Amino acid sequence: MNVAILGASNKPERYSHQAVILLAQQGHTVFPIHPAIDEIEGHRVFKKLGDVPEPLHTITLYLSPSISAGLADAIVAAKPERVIFNPGTENPALEEQLSQAGIAVVRACTLVLLRTNQFEPK
């Protein structure tokens, strides 16, 4: 499954960094997104969502609501099947925009979903 990690970090203690690793370990194709990083754990980092060359199934969000608020158009244009809002990233206005665009909105921790075999849609 193609997964973009918006707000990916090169700091190992950050949950977004751990998500890149665990997603890849579980066989997903990862597309970390961060404007100032070139590589995370051997994975190319894309500067913005629109730079990802593949269709995305899932976008997992690790950005504060103040930052994610300006990404609605880019997320809708990427046409993911779902967007996961990790704890602390909840943004009701953005969630509503995505829902209206037909994108499934999930409030959950990506790491917990992966570790409990709930990440794959049923």
> Into which percentage range does the β-strand content fall?
15-25%
> Which structural class should the secondary elements be placed in?
alpha/beta
Q: Architecture, according to CATH?
A: 3-Layer(aba) Sandwich
**How much helix, percentage-wise, in residues?**
25-40%
Unreliably modeled segments: none
Q: Describe the biggest sheet?
A: 5 strands, parallel
**Helix-strand pattern:** EHEEEEHHEHEH
Q: What is the number of helices?
A: 5
Number of domains: 1
CATH superfamily: NAD(P)-binding Rossmann-like Domain
Going across the major beta sheet, what is the strand order?
A: 2-1-5-6-7
User: In CATH's first tier, which class applies?
Assistant: Alpha Beta
Radius of gyration: 13 Å
Number of strands: 7
Distance between the termini: 13 Å
Write the layout of secondary structure elements.
Blueprint: E1 2-6, H1 15-25, E2 29-33, E3 39-40, E4 43-44, E5 58-61, H2 65-68, H3 72-78, E6 82-85, H4 92-100, E7 104-107, H5 110-115
Parallel strand pairs: 1-2, 1-5, 5-6, 6-7
Antiparallel strand pairs: 3-4
Can you walk through the features of this model?
- By secondary structure, the chain is of the alpha/beta class.
- The chain has a single domain (2-116), classed as 3-Layer(aba) Sandwich (Rossmann fold), CATH 3.40.50.
- Helices cover 30% and strands 21% of the residues.
- It has 5 helices and 7 strands, in the order E-H-E-E-E-E-H-H-E-H-E-H.
- The strands form 2 sheets. Strands 2-1-5-6-7 form a 5-stranded parallel beta sheet, with helices on both faces. Strands 3-4 form a two-stranded antiparallel ribbon.
- Strand 3 and strand 4 (43-44) form a beta hairpin.
- It is globular and about 35 Å long.
- The two termini are 13 Å apart.
- 33% of the residues are buried.
- The model has no long low-confidence stretch (mean pLDDT 97).
